[in-house]
From TrEMBL:
Domain of life: Eukaryota
GO biological process: gamma-aminobutyric acid catabolic process
Encoding gene, per UniProt annotation: ABAT
Top EC group: transferase
Name of the protein in its database record: 4-aminobutyrate aminotransferase, mitochondrial
GO cellular component: mitochondrion
Catalytic reactions on record: (S)-3-amino-2-methylpropanoate + 2-oxoglutarate = 2-methyl-3-oxopropanoate + L-glutamate; 4-aminobutanoate + 2-oxoglutarate = succinate semialdehyde + L-glutamate
Matching Pfam families: Aminotran_3 (PF00202)
Lineage, uppermost ranks: Eukaryota, Metazoa, Chordata, Craniata, Vertebrata
Amino acid sequence: TPSRLIFSFLVRISFTFSIGYRHQQTTAKRVEEVEFDGPCMKTEVPGPRSKILAQQLEAIQSVVQVNFFCDYEESKGNYLVDVDGNRMLDVYTQIASIPIGYNHPALTKVMTDPKNMGTFVNRPALGMMPPEQFSEKLVNGLMVAPKGFSRVQTMACGSCSNENAYKAIFIWYRGQQFLSLVFSFFFQVPGCPDLTLLSFMGGFHGRTLGCLATTHTKAIQKLDVPSFDWPIAPFPQLRYPLGQFERENAQEEARCLEEVEDLIVKWNQKGRHVAGVVIEPIQAEGGDNHASFDFYRKLRGITKKHGCAFLVDEVQTGGGSTGKFWAHEHWGLDDPADIVSFSKKMLTGGYYQKNSFQPDKPFRIFNTWLGDHTKNLLLTEVIKVIKTENLLDQAKRSGKVILEGLYNLQDKYPHLLSRARGIGTFCAIDVKDEDTRNNLILKARNKGVVLGGCGTQSIRFRPALVFTEHHAHLFLDIFNDAIAELK
Ligand SMILES: Cc1ncc(COP(=O)(O)O)c(C=O)c1O
């Protein structure tokens, strides 16, 4: 249809950024014009007010994972303010989910624009009666689609996106199988083929039932929950520094790729066909585990060879922090994936899919909300800001400062820190053990820096895209002080 053609044309427009955002005129104020000049701590975190609120919440909900309560009116730019008035530099951003900092004026403007009131007040369900500007906003907001994708399905969260992407893969796979419907009707439970999805040790794709079958990080996430018996391949365990272990790491990646291919062949032979392979470009929750771009290129080749769909989960890596809008762009492939899922920095969840993954009948991929149009409105502005303020280049520059700082710190404290790694601001470092890691995160927080852990002993850095070199230096100074206190 004409609208589909226009959509596909627009999403193919490449993401060209202008240079030197500091000197450019933009309609909204930039982060440095609106934010604070540094952290300011008044109490330990959590402070007394946070503790009272936690007690109140405990009466109705588990609070074990609540760190502290926040004042979202007062928070600005890279600074998160808590209910006790502590102002902290946020290098974690709600698990990588605040793309352009707190209370960005461009987003406040969207919220207060009378034109958008109907959307914010009514929050329409998008499945059956979408608003007039729905496709326009999808085209605008999602024109950062990876190369080769012209279709997008919005969803609510990351798990919900992957869960439905898995279904799309199975439906697609069945469509490829000769006379599949006839056979399933006569010889199998109708409509319930015994297909599988291959995932990787250390991968995280969410906590809903299907996703959980492909999530292999912490045992507690899977405890007591029945799961699918699907193939799991090893993910390369790279040794650092990379330059020193090139041969060993190449062997390790070859071993994992061989195992992937073996698994696909074996599971296909036993009649439990591998319909798809799901992987993160960097295993985030699992401990910021990287593999080389070449590993991913070869893996993509294996999926093509064996007719498996390739789902790249960019829920955490997508949105610009690696210095490219999608981390898989670093692989340099013309046809990198069949489906790419997103959420977090994209605000709305969802996935891009190739045309052939669109189910042929209604209600096969469906739920009431199918995302949230208020998020689509906000995302349109986020993408404008990323473009006009040249924030992908900013992520590269700030990431360089972070990574160099981490290398220095691990040289300075070799008994405590190791394996500094990262692309753009998507960086991490390992601490000698889990307790020390957790202790370091708390010490940094009380000094005014919010950090998060991942894996068993890593600290991950996930600042917003408005995190500048200045913030990186500030963070490294405070982090250094916190480490010094550990000795
Ligand atoms: C790579 C990846 N996939 C999926 C998810 C699940 O997203 P959500 O927590 O929004 O369900 C996450 C969450 O951290 C993630 O990092």
